[in-house]
């Protein structure tokens, strides 16, 4: 539709990973037609005898050898496509096997593999060893039998990115073996997705032990636990004391308490993203101080922090802000919780003046006596000292902005980049506020305004 050169350039790009696009694959018969056209005539005839629907056989050759460009294998998507051929599960199983075998032969090398719904031991296919040796990224879940992981572990040694959905509460030792056998595992992500919390054995201990042996190469660690109250022992803490080369540290839905000796070992000189949902401000400050000055994101989830910081919330929050503006000159995304005292506001303003790369800011202020006066002071500080890169502000907790103060703020913001604002207070959904926001949207001062109530996922994400 454009020209021959454009077509020859883009086809290899599109077919490198044809499963990653926002497509309803059940309604895309053309993709199914292309894939099945590679099957030999005798296999097609066999499949049709099984009453498996195939596109009509055409002797017209394809314009491109599409599968020769493919470097990825997504079984969830492939199985969705296959399900259109027959409602019979056995027939689907047969067709899956033929297509998997076909892809193993046709794809010169595999870089990406999603085996979330695997039903075939693909590592036994004739071309499997050659294809799978080049695998760089694997997505799977722990409901898969250990034998599949053992099979992959015997071939795949250079996986760099491993994403695991934890669907069972028992240890999958095949997965542990797969982790152990990788020589260059840079990215590991684990996400719990089960209901039962009654552990017979610790489902994480062996996985974390295997990961600790990858400390020289592991740069990105992302773990999302299912139950925030569950994890009080030290397996995760011991792992974190060993991974000194981390660039990304994200731990969701778990309270983490570090001993004094463990805190001394939490040194991440390359850390860029720091996001632990429930960690004391004191512990977070120590990690920030020892982070090497490369932090770009600090996103802590401030829920019940007065309870979490019962010893000295005032002092810990002040120290936390100071550690940021002293140690994080490159910070771009930041969430802050502090009090409405003059000392806190002074430190906050120092942070704004120092951290000139700041793009997105989440602010939560507690123990406010005069909500409107606190809101007025906050807006004045932002006008005086906010860096020119700031594009988004999220306001939460105990402060209020009057129409007059917001009007003044927007007038003074007019020569800056358009600002996205999010708040949790339904006050700002009132007609007078909506009219004010619309006015400054039309003037290009505000890019977007949203009100999100507590409980929404967007509530704590910067």
Give the % helix. Answer: 25-40%
Instruction: Return Rg in Å.
Output: 27 Å
Helix/strand-derived category reads alpha/beta
Number of strands: 14
* Sheet with the most strands: spatial strand order: 1-2-3-4-5-6-7-8-9-10-11-12-13-14
Q: What spatial form do the alpha-carbon principal axes imply?
A: globular
What number is the mean pLDDT? Answer: 87
Protein name: F-box domain-containing protein
Break the fold down into its secondary structure elements and pairings:
Layout: H1 4-14, H2 29-37, H3 41-49, E1 72-74, H4 75-82, H5 89-106, E2 112-114, H6 128-132, E3 137-141, H7 146-153, E4 161-166, H8 173-180, E5 187-192, H9 205-212, E6 220-224, H10 235-240, E7 248-255, H11 260-265, E8 273-278, H12 281-289, E9 297-298, H13 305-308, H14 313-327, E10 333-339, H15 342-354, E11 360-366, H16 371-385, E12 392-397, H17 403-413, E13 419-423, H18 431-442, E14 446-451
Parallel strand pairs: 1-2, 2-3, 3-4, 4-5, 5-6, 6-7, 7-8, 8-9, 9-10, 10-11, 11-12, 12-13, 13-14
Helix pairs in contact: 7-8, 8-9, 12-14, 14-15, 15-16, 16-17, 17-18
């Amino acid at each position: 539709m454009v020209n021959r050169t454009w077509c020859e350039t883009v086809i290899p790009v599109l077919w490198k990973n044809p499963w990653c696009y926002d497509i309803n694959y059940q309604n895309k018969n053309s993709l199914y037609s292309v894939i099945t056209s590679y099957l030999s005539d005798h296999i097609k005839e066999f499949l049709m005898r099984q009453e498996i629907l195939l596109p009509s056989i055409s002797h017209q050759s394809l314009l491109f050898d599409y599968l020769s460009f493919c470097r990825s294998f997504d079984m969830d998507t492939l199985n969705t496509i296959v399900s259109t051929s027959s409602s019979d599960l056995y027939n689907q199983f047969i067709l899956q096997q033929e297509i998997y075998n076909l892809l193993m032969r046709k794809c010169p090398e595999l870089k990406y593999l999603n085996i979330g719904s695997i039903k075939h031991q693909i590592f036994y296919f004739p071309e499997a060893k050659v294809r799978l040796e080049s695998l760089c990224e694997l997505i799977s879940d722990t409901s898969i039998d250990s034998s599949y992981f053992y099979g992959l572990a015997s071939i795949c040694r250079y996986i760099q990115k491993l994403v695991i959905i934890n669907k069972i509460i028992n240890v999958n030792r095949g997965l542990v073996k797969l982790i152990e056998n990788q020589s260059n595992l840079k990215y590991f992500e684990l996400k719990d997705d089960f209901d039962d919390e009654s552990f017979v054995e610790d489902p994480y201990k062996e996985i974390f032990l295997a990961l600790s042996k990858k400390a020289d190469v592991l740069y990105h660690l992302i773990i999302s636990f299912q139950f925030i109250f569950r994890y009080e022992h030290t397996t995760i803490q011991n792992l974190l004391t060993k991974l000194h080369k981390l660039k990304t540290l994200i731990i969701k839905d778990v309270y983490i308490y570090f001993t004094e000796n463990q805190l001394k070992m939490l040194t991440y000189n390359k850390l860029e993203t720091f996001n632990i949902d429930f960690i004391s401000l004191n512990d977070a400050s120590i990690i920030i101080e020892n982070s090497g000055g490369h932090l770009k994101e600090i996103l802590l989830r401030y829920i019940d922090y007065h309870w979490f910081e019962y010893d000295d919330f005032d002092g810990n929050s002040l120290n936390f802000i100071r550690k940021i503006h002293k140690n994080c000159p490159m910070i771009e995304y930041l969430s802050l919780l502090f009090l409405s005292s003059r000392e806190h506001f002074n430190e906050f303003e120092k942070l704004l003046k120092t951290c000139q790369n700041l793009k997105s800011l989440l602010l939560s202020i507690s123990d406010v006596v005069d909500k409107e006066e606190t809101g007025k002071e906050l807006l004045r500080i932002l006008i005086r000292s906010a860096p020119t890169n700031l594009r988004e502000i999220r306001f939460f907790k105990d402060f209020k902005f009057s129409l007059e103060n917001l009007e003044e703020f927007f007038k003074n913001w007019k020569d800056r980049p358009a600002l996205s604002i999010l708040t949790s207070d339904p006050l700002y959904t009132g007609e007078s506020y909506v009219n004010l926001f619309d006015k400054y949207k039309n003037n290009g001062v505000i890019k977007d305004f949203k009100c999100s109530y507590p409980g929404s996922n967007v509530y704590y994400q910067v």
